[in-house]
Amino acid sequence: MSKTIIGFTGPISSGKTTAAKYLAEKFNGKIYGFSGPLRDILNRLYLPLERANMAKLSETIREAFGSDLISKTIAKDIANDPCDFIILEGLRRVPDLETMKSLPGFRLLSVTADSKLRWERMTKRGQNADDATKTYEVFLTDEQAEADRDIPVVMSMAEATLDNNGSLEDLYNQLDKLF
To answer: Are strands 30-33 and 85-91 parallel, antiparallel or unpaired?
Structure first.
């Protein structure tokens, strides 16, 4: 069975998860995310789901077991998944992209939006425990963290970029045109 694997990259709160959910629902796909294994471990350890904890855990795992362990784990999960349409959300690092590019049927898309709008969306959605109270200045600092430094490089390798500065309908229309 051949799979279609769509990877999304982009800065914090640009709309990657929203785009992934839309495609998964529309085409009966399954979503995998790079933060998923980190969230699983933090939950199991009863630690807060905060960006700083995920970054620290990610760095620790990568230092101890190799920079591509998480991407290799997700690649194996995808290979073992019977679903033929996979959406991979949150590609941030070049080594992770290299692992995913080795999968047949992989395509990379980026999602972008202005920083102020992304910060507003992040504080409203509250995905992480500390998101709702995060200042714009701290948000900008988070984007410079080790976990997010490669994002512009990864985005430059995407086949197409979705502009998510408009409405949900605008984003969905762009996705519909691509697919």
So the answer is: parallel
Tens-place pLDDT, residues 9-34: 999 999 999 999 999 999 999 999 98
Maximal C-alpha separation, the chain: 47
pLDDT of residue 130: 75
State the Rg of the chain over Cα. Answer: 16
- Judged against a pLDDT cut of 90, whether residue 147 lies above it is answered with no
User: Count of H helices and E strands in the chain?
Assistant: 9, 5
Task: Collect all residues with Cβ–Cβ distance below 8 Å to 136 and sequence separation of at least 6.
Answer: 116, 119
Bridge partners, residue 7, by sequence:
88, 108
pLDDT digits (tens, 9 = 90+) for 81-102: 999 999 999 999 999 999 999 9
Structure tokens at 26: 């529309």
Paired with 90 in beta bridges are none
Q: What is the DSSP string of 110-177?
A: EEE--HHHHHHHHHHH--STTSTT--HHHHHHHTTSGGGTTHHHHHHT-SEEEE-SS-HHHHHHHHHH
Please report, rounded to a whole number, the percentage of residues in the chain having pLDDT higher than 70. 99
Q: Is residue 89 within 8 Å of residue 16, measured between CB atoms?
A: yes
